[in-house]
C-alpha cells in the first residue's frame, strides 16, 4: 500500500507527501558533525591523480550519480553517501551500496520506490534547488547542489575531488558544456567565493 501511495504521490507531484520518506536535515548533521568529508565529483581529470587513499581516509565519502570507482588509485573505493540525479538502476544499486542515499534532482518522477524507502533516505528540498538555480542563473549540477547542502552541515573539513567545472568533461558521458543545462563558470565562481568565506572547504587538484 505504501508503495502504491508513493507512485500516486510521485505522479501527482505531491512534494509534501514525497518528503515524508526523507529524514530531516538534522539526521545528516548528526552524521557529519566534527567529521571529515570527501566529496568526489566525476571530472575526467581525476583519473590522472592519485587521490584514492586520501579519499578513503575521510570519515565520510560522498559519490555522485554513476559513482565511478573503477580506478581505486585515483578514486578510492568507499561510498558512504550516494547522491543521485539519475535513475537508480538495478545495476547501480548492485554496484554501489552506501549507508545513505540522497535524491538531489528536481525531477521527482525519476525517483523509484526502492530508493525512497531505503533507510536514511534524504530528499533535497525543491525550495533549496530553486534558490540555488536563481543564484547561478542556471540549473545547478549535482556536485554544486551537494556543496550547497554541505555548507549547511557541521562537518569539520570538506574536500572536493574531481571538480574542475567541466574543463575535462565528465567521466560519465560525452556531452560538452554547451550540451548540458549548467553554467559551470557561474558554479566555479560560486564555489570559489564559498571557499573564501568558509575555510572548511578545500578544492583538491
TrEMBL record:
Recorded GO MF terms: sialyltransferase activity
Main location group: membrane
Superkingdom, taxonomy of origin: Bacteria
Gene Ontology terms: cellular component: endomembrane system; membrane
Topological type in the membrane: Single-pass membrane protein
Pfam families: Glyco_transf_29
InterPro entries: Glyco_trans_29, GT29-like_sf
Name the UniProt record assigns to this protein: Glycosyltransferase family 29 (Sialyltransferase)
Amino acid at each position: 500500500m505504501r508503495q502504491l501511495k508513493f507512485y500516486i504521490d510521485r505522479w501527482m507531484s505531491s512534494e509534501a507527501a514525497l518528503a515524508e520518506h526523507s529524514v530531516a536535515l538534522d539526521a545528516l548533521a548528526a552524521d557529519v558533525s566534527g567529521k571529515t568529508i570527501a566529496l568526489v565529483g566525476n571530472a575526467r581529470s581525476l583519473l590522472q591523480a592519485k587521490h584514492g587513499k586520501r579519499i578513503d581516509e575521510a570519515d565520510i565519502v560522498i559519490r555522485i550519480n554513476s559513482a565511478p570507482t573503477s580506478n581505486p588509485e585515483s578514486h578510492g573505493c568507499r561510498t558512504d553517501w550516494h547522491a543521485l540525479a539519475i535513475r537508480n538502476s538495478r545495476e547501480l544499486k548492485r554496484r554501489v551500496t552506501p549507508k545513505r542515499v540522497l535524491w538531489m534532482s528536481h525531477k521527482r518522477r525519476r525517483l523509484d520506490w526502492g530508493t525512497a524507502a531505503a533507510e536514511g533516505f534524504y530528499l533535497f528540498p525543491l525550495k533549496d534547488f530553486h534558490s540555488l538555480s536563481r543564484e547561478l542563473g542556471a540549473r545547478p549540477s549535482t556536485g554544486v547542489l551537494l556543496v550547497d547542502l554541505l555548507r549547511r552541515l557541521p562537518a569539520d573539513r570538506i574536500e572536493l575531488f574531481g571538480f574542475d567545472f567541466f574543463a575535462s568533461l565528465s567521466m560519465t558521458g560525452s556531452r560538452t558544456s554547451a550540451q548540458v543545462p549548467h553554467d559551470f563558470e557561474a558554479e566555479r565562481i560560486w564555489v570559489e567565493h564559498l571557499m573564501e568565506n568558509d575555510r572548511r572547504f578545500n578544492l583538491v587538484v
